[in-house]
Amino acid sequence: MQHKLLASDAGERAFILVLEEGDEAFSCLTGFAKREGVTAASITAIGAFRAATIAFFEYETKNYKKIPVEVQSEVLSLIGDVALDDDGKASLHLHVVLGLSDGSTRGGHFLEGHVRPTLEVVLRETPARLRRRHRSDLGIALIDLG
Predict the structure, then answer these.
(1) Contact between residue 91 and residue 17 where contact means Cβ atoms under 8 Å apart
(2) Any idea what DSSP says for residue 136?
(3) How far apart are CA 143 and CA 128, in angstroms?
């Protein structure tokens, strides 16, 4: 993965990250956010995966149902945010829409994606500190504005 700082002003930074074939996107983005000390940011990306895993949150069971996508797909939209988790570490919450060769799509909570040939990511940081806290009543961690 390559990256470049595009802008830095008043505590706000904007980065472009270019992931390369074979990179695993979620771990690359998480590692970058941790290394750069990102505490609040938005993420957008486009590109392609050779394989990915997405998920659907089943409210009744409070669990994510994994959905493997084991074919080449276009990343039509990957969006999300970065906040700090209960341990004070960068936590990503990302959703993705993947386009398949027949024009159909698959979408959901983004868990894993193996890049082929590239993924272009824009990360926009704000000077705020967002905190994502685990909600036992829901079984997931959500941004806590309190």
Answers:
(1) no
(2) T
(3) 13
